Amino acid sequence: MKNKICHISFCILILLASGCTKKYDDYPEPAETLAGNIKDAGSKSNLQSEAGDRGMRLVLEELSWSSTPTPYYFFAMQDGSFRNTKIFKGNYRISVEGPFVPLVQYDGSGQVTVDKRKTMDIAGTTNVDFEVEPFLNVAWVGEPAYNATNKTISVQVRFTRGTANTAFHKNVTDVFLFVSPNNYVGNNNYDNKYSVQVNYGGTSGNDQLGQTVTLTTKDVLPGSRSFFLRVGARIDYGLKYYNYTTVKTINIP
To answer: Which of 56, 100, 124, 168 has its CA 20 to 30 A from that of 41?
Structure first.
């Protein structure tokens, strides 16, 4: 029994000793800020997108310790702005990805042919803007109209090519009127009961480029409330993310 007690005591001492040697991460938490905007190179206005993983994202590669670092990603807001307050101080190569001509392009052998990434130090609050060429420009034509007879909403839009680079003049696949009870409206957040999508086959969507397209919501909209509207259009390229209009609000009587 005495031997057993001694054995248990010895084990406890080993555990206590190992606990005393535990090391803690003494590096300061990331506290630098990177902020800015993703802009349409043509209009110089912020490029509209959607929040989350089907919108636009920043790609950061910290070069302070390695020439081949593991990328770090974070997403921009739907209005094209971004702000991250939890970044380590250092030297970074920065790019953006989304429904626009890629900032980094490769040839058939994997060699970089275009590289518009930016390299800079991030310390304190660092601001940077990117100018990109969207696949499509999607714009409102007039204001949304409430149809009192059948309690629907009609909108008109026009979409055009956002780049002169013909390598990215792919077929227009569809146009989508997104309707939501909140202003975070898009392909990631919409009410399918009222939203409407027009799909195009082959090159038929290209025939709509530069034309005024009319879209009308489905079903009867409930009265005495507000809805948020947005139209997206996309091409048959990559992950097929939408280019968007701004968000509009309509009050249903």
So the answer is: 124
Closest CA to 231 of 205, 196, 204: 196
The answer, yes or no, to whether residue 17 has pLDDT greater than 90, is no
Residues 6+ positions from 229 with CB-CB distance below 8 Å: 144, 153, 155, 177, 178, 179, 185, 247, 248, 249, 250
Domains in the chain (CATH in brackets) are: 32-132 (2.60.40.1120), 136-252 (2.60.40.2060)
Q: How many CB atoms within 10 Å of residue 97?
A: 21
Average pLDDT for 226-242: 97
In 3D, which of 103, 161, 158 has the Cα closest to residue 136?
A: 161
CA-angle at 240, arms to 237 and 241, nearest 5°:
130
Report residue 28's pLDDT band, with 50, 70 and 90 as the boundaries: confident
Distance CA(44)–CA(65), nearest Å, equals: 35
Asked if 168 contacts 237 with a C-beta cutoff of 8 angstroms, the reply is: yes
